[in-house]
């Protein structure tokens, strides 16, 4: 099943703020493997297939460095089509000596973790077949084990890395929030996601359509963590895609019932979660 298409609700694009646009473009092209779809003086839109925006990077006026112990982006996660694709990018990182922050087997997926030059977190992963995921009472079993790099590299097909595969999608986003209960109310009662895993009282994973998670939420930066200042490096916004206008209208009505302000911009609607993370509601 494709968990990143209708009738599911999923993350299509993430917009982040950086301190130096040209440095960020070089990193995202040369290290991660994006293509430039559109470029302006202080902003660039990046793609894997030459047509679908996945990541927007922008350099705010009077930008300040990423602020610690605040809400916002923990990481955005790029989902590669195959395990062989993961092998190629591992070989690419080894060849270029780019440091990873982690490499984990989550049972449902196999993942690499790193950061861009400004400290914006990135996950690059592949999913295991959905039929192998273990569910119990509506929750999917995920863990964090050592990634078997050797096994993944053995699946490489011998062709050199040439950037992100065209079928790469934005697999999920993981956010720092100030209050997990308030976040759950907003994302589940408001946006309509379902809880699929809880990590004690510190993290929550939610999804649409039985995915292992489209959104992760945690309080690892501290309960009551403040939102960063507007011109700080970090998350600007992320875009959720709804299957149709009717589904989006239902969500907007639910948000209004729980007293969440919703505004309109062009053909999209905007809402902020209780921790100040901006979400674009699109169709």
Automatic annotation (TrEMBL):
<dbReference type="Pfam" id="PF00903">
    <property type="entry name" value="Glyoxalase"/>
</dbReference>
<feature type="domain" description="VOC">
    <location>
        <begin position="10"/>
        <end position="127"/>
    </location>
</feature>
<feature type="domain" description="VOC">
    <location>
        <begin position="169"/>
        <end position="283"/>
    </location>
</feature>
<dbReference type="InterPro" id="IPR018146">
    <property type="entry name" value="Glyoxalase_1_CS"/>
</dbReference>
<dbReference type="InterPro" id="IPR037523">
    <property type="entry name" value="VOC_core"/>
</dbReference>
<dbReference type="InterPro" id="IPR029068">
    <property type="entry name" value="Glyas_Bleomycin-R_OHBP_Dase"/>
</dbReference>
<dbReference type="GO" id="GO:0018577">
    <property type="term" value="F:catechol 2,3-dioxygenase activity"/>
</dbReference>
<keyword id="KW-0479">Metal-binding</keyword>
<protein>
    <submittedName>
        <fullName>Catechol 2,3-dioxygenase</fullName>
        <ecNumber>1.13.11.2</ecNumber>
    </submittedName>
</protein>
<dbReference type="InterPro" id="IPR004360">
    <property type="entry name" value="Glyas_Fos-R_dOase_dom"/>
</dbReference>
<keyword id="KW-0560">Oxidoreductase</keyword>
């Amino acid at each position: 099943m494709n968990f990143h298409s209708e009738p599911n609700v999923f993350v299509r694009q993430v917009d982040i703020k950086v301190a130096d646009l040209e440095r960020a473009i070089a990193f995202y092209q040369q290290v991660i493997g994006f293509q430039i779809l559109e470029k302006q003086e202080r902003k660039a839109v990046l793609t894997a297939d030459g047509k679908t925006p996945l990541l927007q990077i922008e350099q705010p006026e009077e930008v300040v460095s990423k602020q610690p112990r605040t809400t916002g982006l923990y990481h955005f996660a790029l989902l590669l089509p195959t395990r062989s694709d993961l092998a190629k990018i591992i070989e690419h990182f080894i060849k270029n000596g780019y440091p990873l922050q982690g490499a984990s087997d989550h049972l449902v997926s196999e993942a690499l973790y790193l950061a861009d030059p400004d400290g914006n977190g990135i996950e690059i992963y592949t999913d295991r077949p959905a039929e192998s995921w273990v569910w119990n009472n509506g929750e999917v079993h995920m863990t964090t084990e050592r990634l078997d790099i050797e096994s993944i590299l053995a699946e490489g097909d011998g062709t050199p890395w040439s950037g992100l595969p065209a079928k790469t999608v934005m697999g999920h986003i993981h956010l720092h929030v100030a209050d997990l209960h308030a976040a759950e109310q907003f994302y589940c009662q408001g946006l309509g996601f379902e809880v699929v895993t809880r990590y004690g009282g510190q993290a929550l994973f939610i999804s649409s359509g039985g995915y292992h998670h489209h959104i992760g939420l945690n309080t690892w930066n501290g309960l009551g963590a403040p939102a960063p200042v507007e011109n700080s490096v970090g998350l600007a916004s992320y875009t959720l895609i709804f299957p149709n206008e009717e589904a989006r209208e239902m969500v907007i009505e639910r948000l209004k019932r729980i007293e969440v302000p919703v505004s309109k911009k062009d053909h999209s609607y905007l809402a902020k979660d209780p921790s100040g993370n901006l979400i674009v509601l699109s169709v």
